[in-house]
Write a structure and sequence with these properties.
The protein has one domain. The chain is mostly helical.
Length: 105
């Protein structure tokens, strides 16, 4: 079976099913990779794509997809909090709402 490539531009958070969140997140990740987004540019695009998500909304995305997003952001210059017992959904929600990109120390 071929992978499903459905483009979801924006999600209606009240109407979307969990699968819709997965498809949306995968498509956004694919577009960042394709367009070679990095650093502040990637941070800004992430905020545009996920700025209306909170921790609960991010929790609706499968963990393997969240992990890929976190890994991609880190590998391309966006600081993502990583510590034992620190939820990926919380870390991504913080990035989605921060006013300025966090500085790597």
């Amino acid at each position: 079976m071929e992978p499903q490539h459905v483009w979801i531009k924006n999600l209606d958070l009240n109407e979307a099913k969990n699968d819709d969140f997965d498809v949306y997140a995968k498509n956004k990740l694919e577009s960042w990779i394709k367009m070679e987004r990095r650093d502040d540019n990637l941070w800004g695009v992430f905020q545009e794509d996920f700025g209306y998500f909170d921790e609960t909304t991010f929790q609706r995305i499968d963990k393997p997809i969240l992990r890929k997003i976190c890994d991609h952001l880190r590998a391309n210059g966006v600081f993502v909090h990583k510590q034992q017992r620190y939820k990926m959904a919380r870390a991504l929600a913080e990035i989605a709402t921060e006013e300025n990109p966090s500085v790597w120390s």
